[in-house]
Structures are given as C-alpha cells and as structure tokens.
Amino acid sequence: MTATLAPPPRSKPKAVKRLRSFVRRWWHQLTSMRTALLLLLALALAAIPGSTFPQRSISATDVAGYFDEHPDLAPALDRLWAFDVYTSPWFSAIYLLLMVSLVGCIIPRLGVHWKALRAKVPDAPKRMSILPYHRVLDTEANQSMARAVLKQRRWRTTVREAEDGTVTFAAEKGHLRETGNLLFHTSIIFMLVGVAVGSLMSWYGNRILSEDKAYCNNLQQYDEYGLGAWVDETSLPRFCLTLNAFDAEFTNGGPTAYDADVAYETSDEEGDYALEVNHPLNIDGTNVFLIGHGYTAVVTYTDRYGQTQTLHQEFLAMDTAMNSEGAFKFPDVNYNPETGAVDEDAEVGFDAILVPTYDDTTAMLLGTEPELNNPVLALTAYTGDLGLADGQPESVYAVNETQIASGNLEQVNDEVEVIGVGDAMALPDGSTLTFDGVEQYAVLQVRHDPGGPIVLAGAILLLGGLLPALAVRRRRFWIRWNPDGTVETAGLNRNDYDGLDEECDELTAAIAPGSEPPPASESDDSIGSKQ
Prior knowledge:
6-stranded antiparallel β-sheet; elongated; ResB-like_domain
C-alpha cells in the first residue's frame, strides 16, 4: 500500500493578515491612555458650542430668536448641528469613542492588577547593597517578631528559604495606588454613562403656580419644558398638584425661607406635603422642586359699556428687591350690548411694573425691599390691535413691541401712571383698570433624571479613587538572614517617595529593638535612580 500524504496547511491570505494587523494596531492606539486623554479634551472642546449657541432641547424660543437676529448665519450653523450639539453625530462619535477607549484601557489593567495582587512579592537581589536603602543590623533580629510587625503594618509578605540556610522576608505595600487609578478611570465611565442616560431619558417642566391654583402633569400646562431623546408626553406620570398656600420670609432684604403647602393627587393616592427648598416632593419617581417665588397682580378692567374682566397675572422679578414686570391684555372688550357690535381695533393692553414696597417720599419708582409693604403698579396703556390673532408666539409679560412700532397699538397716557391697591387708572374712553391686590406664586420644577444616581456613583468612585492615587506610594522592603549570622534590611520605592528611608528605619527598629544601624554609604552602583 502506498501512504497518502496529508495536504500542507493552507496559509491565511495576506489580505486577512494585513487586516488583522491593521485592526490590532488601531485598537491598541484607541485604547491607550494618551488617546483617552485626547478624546476627553476633544469632548470638552466640542461642548463649547453647546454653551455658546442656544439649544433646542433647552429653549426652542431662544433658537427662533437667534434665527431672527442672524438670518444668514443661523441656517449654516443649523446644518452643523450648532443648536443640537449634544445630539449631533460628531459629538456622539467623540462620546462613544471616549467610552470605548476607557473601557478598552481599563479592562486589561484590571487583569494585570488582579494578577499582581495574587503574585508573590519579588525576591531581593543577591547584592542588597545596590538598593536605595540598605542596612546591616548590629543585633540579632527575630523572625517571628519580623513577621508580626509586617503583618500588623499591613505589608504583603512572601517568605523564601534557600538551600544554604538563607531566609528572606519580601514585603510589599502600595497596591492601593493602582486600585485608586482604576477606580478614578472607572468613575469617568460612570459619569459618561450617567450623562448619556440623563440626556436620553430625563425630562423637566417649569411651572409658575399661584395660590389656590392647580395644574396637571402634561406638557400643555408647563411654562417651559425639555424632553430627552427617548421621552415623549405619554412617558410622563399622571398627577395633579394644587398650591394651597405659600409663604416667603425675608431678612435684611433677602429671602431666607420659602414654604409651600401643596396637595397632590395620583391615580393611586392623594395627600398633602410641605414643600421647601431642597426638600422635593417625590411622586412616582419624579421630583417636584420649589425653586423660587414671585408676585401675581390682581386687576379688574371695566370697559366703557360697564362690562368687567378680572385678571390674575404673574409678574417676573427684575432684581433682588422683587421689582417685577408684566402685562395685562384685554382683547375681548368694548362689546356694545345694545347693538351687539365689537370694536376689533379697540383692544386694550397695559405694560406694568409691580413695586412691592413703594416709597412715595423719594423720586425713585423702584423699591429696595422685596416684601409687600406698599405695593403699587406703574402702568402704560395702549389701545388698538394687540396682535393676538396673528398666530405668532409672544411674551405674556409684555405688550407686543412689533405692534407698537408698526402703529397698530397707540399709547394712551403720555406718562407712566402709578396706582396703589384699591386705586384705578382711567382711560380717555371712560374705561378703567382697578388694582385689586397682590397674591404670591411659587416657581415649581418637576424633574425626572434617571442618570443622576449613576453620576453620583461616579462622583463617589472618583473621590474614593483619587485619594489613594495621590497619597499612596508603592514600595518594597526585604529582610535577609544570611548563613554567616548577619541580618540585612533593604528598601526600594516604586514611585517618587521622599519618606522611604524614614519608614524603613522605623521598620528596622521595630524588628530589631535596640539596633542602631549606621547610615549606608552611597554606592556608585546604587539602582535607586533607575527604579
């Protein structure tokens, strides 16, 4: 019979080898610590446009205003995702590359660190005199005492016995430094994941709520809101909130305490809660925060036909003294009950400033105290077309300036008129605006941020890792009992550590009480500068 020879193994195509080599080379480059630092710097630089230009996720109104102010530049910036920086492809690419780089850098180091923790401490060189610290003891050192001292001071120790009778204790300390480094870099991953989860799954809504008013948790009832990329209105929990009472305390012209008594109702429960700053109400995993307060002016407008409208209008504070600005708009007025006709060009609006504490003994309009001691309204009246029917969004805290500039609104009074509570401002057509009083409102923020706990865990890991990474030093210490009866000690620092000699002297004195080892003479072949 003739033997059949097996065919030679087929070599892999050169193209596959080149591809593997290319991938391996770029993977090592991507997972290096230098690349991670460069990507972290790139991420910080990429976030600059997000703080320079208005973002749609924060305020679409500001973005629309930027388009109005820069009609030529804004479209070009929009094509570069300047108004959606944190969801842009280029920002996401840097973000993902940084996470991959950190994970690829940390996982191999974890394996190396785990092996180092389980490995035996390396033995000392045969000539211990070449180490930066070296002493020859003039008294006998007890091995049991040496073992006890090293264990008490938490040195990881390996004992070696040679055939010639030499006994060496090899001790090591400072692995917590590398543990701290790994925790520090892991904390960055936690923070990146937390920020990503928060960006995708978090949402918030701001609401100004006056006393004895209520609202329910849906987007139409928020003054301002923002939704994550993976959140829509159906994701919001269902609840309603009522502000029963609000109280603000002031000391030396500044607020010291906000207290809001609220009632909440969900599909499963209802109850009352004392809402305070930094003490949010939690409803179905959503936190309701009290973040501010302001004043609501109550006025009654009586048109020339005697018909009245009462309006509760919130005002926005302009300064710390709570001098606030707002507007009253009455589009549905001047209806003649006899003829049934409505003068569509006789709408009425008032620009107003609410002064909580007015001092009529001075020429200054604005007050210096935020408390309601002598509230007044400073009014400027307009008649004409308020522009409410043109379909364009506008501020509820000011009369439309475009309508004023175009002449569709005409100013009635030449000078600002100041009225107090109970007083009325009379218009030339016989209509009046009466100042009925002032109420308080609370500024509430409803927020759900699932990424917050992840970021908090990352911050704790960062602090827990940074301290040992900065404070702990890696060092080694050896004790050798030679066959001739001499005992040597030696030490080596693995990092910059100025206290090596002092620590080794202290260990030597504890192991061999009464010994006074002379300082070692410096040797030309010392490896201290090489380690």
